[in-house]
Amino acid sequence: MNTLNETILHVDLKKLEQNFNYLKAKLKTSSKIIGVVKAFAYGHGDIKVSEKLSQLGVFALWVSDFEEGVAIRESGIQTKIMVANPGMKSYHAIIKNQLDVVIYNHALLELYCSNKHAVNIHIKFNTGMNRYGFEKKDIQPIVTKIKNSPHLNLISICSHLAVSNEKSHAAYTLSQIRKFDLISRKFELAIGKAVDKHLLNSSGLLNFEKYQLDGVRLGIGLYGSTEDKNLQQISCLSSVITQIRNIEKNDSIGYGKSFIAKKNMKIAIVPVGYADGINRKLSNQNGSVFIGDSKCSIVGEISMDSFAVDISKVNAKEGDKVQLFGNKLTVIEIAKKINTIPYEIYATLNRRIKRVYSE
Q: How many alpha carbons lie under 13 Å from residue 328 in its C-beta half-sphere?
């Protein structure tokens, strides 16, 4: 560990492995695991996480754009990499780095048909997310183009669930599953062979296990922030106290004088802020941290690079460790506090935060 860094995201790769094995145990032996490592592996560091998932035997790694895929490939990882949104300008980089592409509209399909380099493709259909994907009516034109383009190696077809994490919307998820089943049958009939299919994400697997098809795309479940208590949060964000000061009654703390001390108090300054991904909605006693076993409220507005906590009842000193999230305070708890989701907490963690990995 580089002790020069005061703010560190500790990533436990052993917990990642345990989460992987727990989710894998829910799968048929024939079902493939696609590990989602987009957005810097949800803030955890895509290279190290991809290396670990490759060692664990994932079928493929799922990234958002070609730059993420290129960075992982250039690190030496040889596992299949699927680019969810390849864009129209990245063709040569994708071919050079042997990346798979997810094709979701006619412009992309035409691009990869008209250029004759061999490439692995995955066709995405819209079943109710109404974001990316072809419609059922597009099946025949897609199949015709693929059959006329022998350099295109069709690996799979897929879709994406919108509310698989919410059991109250199970009917909608089941309608998406039925729609994808109809699309899959029609597609396979048109192309004349069986094709791998994947639809479920982490919450899809946890809540709709029997619809796992030929593969699943696992993201947040691997990182341990779901309602399933068997999945462990794999990371802990910590910093240190860099200054302690005494505040008198009626003094203000931070920008905007949004916090006025109602009594004499002692505060600690922590050198991490909204530029690092600490959401400003945690300001003014809405959020808290742990110093040792003591829960300390955030006071005043969170600044770009720092925030203050109330340590009036805590025996603390400069240099003491501060846990922003981890075993004492989970990302799920923080997300609920500010009415967001764990994905956002993770994805906004600035890359300037030092990542330290352990087994």
A: 14
- pLDDT tens figures, 163-178: 999 999 999 999 999 9
Q: Are 349 and 4 in contact (CB under 8 A)?
A: no
* Residue closest to 115 by CA, chosen among 123, 107, 105: 107
Query: pLDDT, tens digit, for every residue of 171-224?
Result: 999 999 999 999 999 999 999 999 999 999 999 999 999 999 999 999 999 999
Q: List, in order, residues 6 or more apart from 69 with CB less than 8 Å away.
A: 63, 81, 83, 94, 97, 99
Tell me whether strands 321-325 and 354-358 are parallel, antiparallel or unpaired: unpaired
**SS3 category, 283:** coil
* pLDDT at residue 349, rounded to an integer: 98
pLDDT at position 3, please? Answer: 55
CB 163 within 8 A of CB 173: yes
Pairing assessment for the beta strands 80-83 and 60-63 based on DSSP bridges: parallel
Q: Which 8-state DSSP code applies to residue 197? A: E
| pLDDT of amino acid 5 | 86
Instruction: Specify which residues 24 forms β-bridges with.
Output: none
Map tokens 């597009």 to a residue: 138
Question: What's the CA gap between 64 and 40, in Å, rounded?
Answer: 10
pLDDT, tens digit (0-9, with 9 covering 90-100), for 267-294: 999 999 999 999 999 999 999 999 999 9
What radius of gyration do the chain's Cα atoms show? 24
Both structure tokens of 62: 């799922």
* Tokens of residue 100, six digits: 């798979």
Percent of the chain with pLDDT over 90: 98
Please state the separation of Cα 319 from the chain's center in Å: 31
> What 3 state SS string does 136-181 have?
HHHHHHHHHHHHCCCCEEEEEEECCCCCCCCHHHHHHHHHHHHHHH
